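Following up on my earlier thread - several people asked me to post the actual chain instead of describing it. Fair enough. Here it is, all 354 residues.
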Amino acid sequence: MDQEEHLPCSLTSYKYGFANQRSGILNQIQSEFWEVFDLKDPDTTPPRTRRKLRIEDEIAHFSDDHYLADLYEDEVIQSLVRFETKWAKKKREAALGSSLQDEFTSDEKEILLKLPRKEYILSSKESKFAMMGLFDILFGYAYNHRTTEGENTVSSGWTVCKLSSTLSWFDAFQNLEDVVRSSFQRSLCFPLYRNWRLSETVFADVKDVISLGKTTILKCLLEVRQMLLDADQHYILNDLYVCDYCVWIQSVKSSTLEKLLQALNNILVKKSDLDLDLELLEQAGSLAVKEADKICDQHTLSTSSSSESSDDGSDGESDQDISNDQDTDDYDREKLPVLLRKCHISECQSEKNS
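Reply from S.P.:
Thanks for posting it. Predicted structure:
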């Protein structure tokens, strides 16, 4: 089968694909792509069950330790947040008088010529599915762009798919706030860098992309298409979603994108909106860090006092003894925050419930 051959459609099972219009496809070829999708049986899994399973999977994969590590050891995160994307650069240059208009490369033009010529007649519900899915895919793309600083890797296709509920779970959204929350939550559960400020910055990046119009969005989608071609077996998602998005976006009215951008600007995602108890975790982490610092200060004071006593008395400890003390101190510094956090979580939960 040609990698981008259009797949048959059936009306006998639950739907998925662009604008939630396809069905009855994957049960015929599912064994070939079982590692690509997180939802293992799309044709027989109803929408509510898909979403329930997705959220349960996200909660199961969320790592307290990983989140706290990226919260407190954030030097790399800060660098990624400061990175200037190509869209931010274009907007900055436009403020100085340059054109905002993007141009296609010769390779992009060649790909566009190969895309099918289709007219999409979508119902109001299908149009919402398509627009929500567009945001979902762009969020994964923007996260990858920022965290690789514009240099795609062999994992880029995986990253985009994993952050997109549309591509990984065939979840179809009707509510913009739901899809934004989903994107934030997945960005804190699966990729290498899991940081709230980073997720907020990626959200702003998506709004930058949409503000620059259809050409910029299409260039992003063409890049996603190539990432999926380069990722093992992921080309099926081009057949189901991305190629249709590349064709459809060209016919979307600029006013529709402006309304989407305005709606996104009115959304403020809070940590309490997610299913991950982030505020409780951060409170516990803060208590643990303060307690660890206190114990380390006490240990330093005790070591200093012991050293002064040794100077007044015998020859003192051997080099091996000193080395052992340092190893023990390093071990305590490494393990103590995790142990204390586990203790404080129950304390914080009790306070929250009281």
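Residues 167 and 246 are 15 Å apart (CA to CA). That should answer part of your original question.
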